Amino acid sequence: MADDGLGPDRKACPAVRGTHRRQRGGASQTGAEPTPRLREPAFAAILRIPRTGGPQRTMSIRRIGVAAHRGPSNQDDAALVAQAVRAIRDGQIVVLPTETVYGIAADPGSEASIARVREWKGRQAEQRFTHHLADPSDVDRFVAAVPPRVRALTDRYWPGPLTVVLPGKDGGTVGVRVPAHDFSRAVARALGGSVFLTSVNQSGEAAIAGPDEIAATLADRVDLLFDAGPPPLRQASTIVRWRPVPQGEDFGELEVLREGVLSASELETLAARTWLFVCTGNTCRSPMAEVIARRECARRLATTDDRVRAHGLVFASAGITALTGMAASDGGRAAVRELGLSLDDHQSTALTRELLAAADRILCLGASHLVAVRALAPAIADRAELLDPRGGGIPDPFGEDLDTYRRTRDSIQRAVQLRLDEILPR
Length: 426
What we know:
The protein is built from twelve helices and 15 strands. It is an alpha/beta fold. The protein folds into two domains: 42-135 and 178-227, DHBP synthase (Alpha-Beta Complex); 266-421, Response regulator (Rossmann fold, 3-Layer(aba) Sandwich), CATH 3.40.50.2300. The chain has an eleven-stranded mixed beta sheet, with helices on both faces. Strands 13-12-14-15 form a four-stranded parallel beta sheet, with helices on both faces. Helix 2 crosses helix 5 (182-190) and helix 8 (285-301) packs across helix 12. The longest helix has 20 residues, at 402-421. The chain is elongated and about 80 Å long.
């Protein structure tokens, strides 16, 4: 579940470098850490684990030590939903389950309900609560627009432990999430499509995740607790904020405000497009292209190299005959060092069909590389082209002197600038 502390006290977590969107890991990224390959989110398997070895946990309604058991966990029971909605609208402190942690509910349409929960938590007025939606389609009712890169995240992780903060229709920002819990989503539906949920704790204190702990420590302060058993994930949702930039929505920044079940690396990578540079051995030309492109992109976006991925672009490299784990050539390292760049941590990567399938754009340093790429993966031929849009290949400087490497570097830099001009003005 979100919470929420979406106000000015929320700190952004450090940027985490990673790989590109479709292929989680594999291609070289100088100075980057690999992330797992794209697969079903880990939390999905946890949420589908059937309960075995005994009777299924039932939904329990606890009112200061008195429990009445009604129906199985996660069941959309009309009577229970109606009871929850009445209590929330009456201004009671009602705790609902989600797959992450339990949360105190408020009716988004009732200022009195919101004020009651805010007073209970000791929260400042500028700290907004998060909308927990009944259905993913409800998001358009609360936000000004959902950018395509954010839509890629919500399509993959909703319902689930992801909160996104977007520009709202009123000019401020709005936090939204679709929890993976049928009961709380049914309550949201009965309240008109959304229920505010905030972690069960006083502001500034650690959240209390499960129903047993809540009942044991807060029985005198909670009016109604809907007990569906321990939350499967027992960890808060990840909160990511979308920050528009002048260069357009394709390059808006994803700022991870809090890492929870999902990592910053996973989210930034999924929402990014990958440019894969291909040469022969992945020790000179393509690694130079990779670091030069990242720096040039950072300059145009007025950001740092390590934040380029958060703006939606990942640069990687590989070689058609590369041996995995080779260092960059001495000449390549020296040539980019003169631009304030480093290939000291580079390790070569062999080109594979999987890397090609994962890339959004494949830029080849020479004509022979383009032929090899199209032969290796004919299905992606339309994504492969020469790096230099003027049609020429860039000669291999391997084994030559530093001046040759400098000329190669400068040719790569000009070609990269021309390619970036196609999507991102200087």
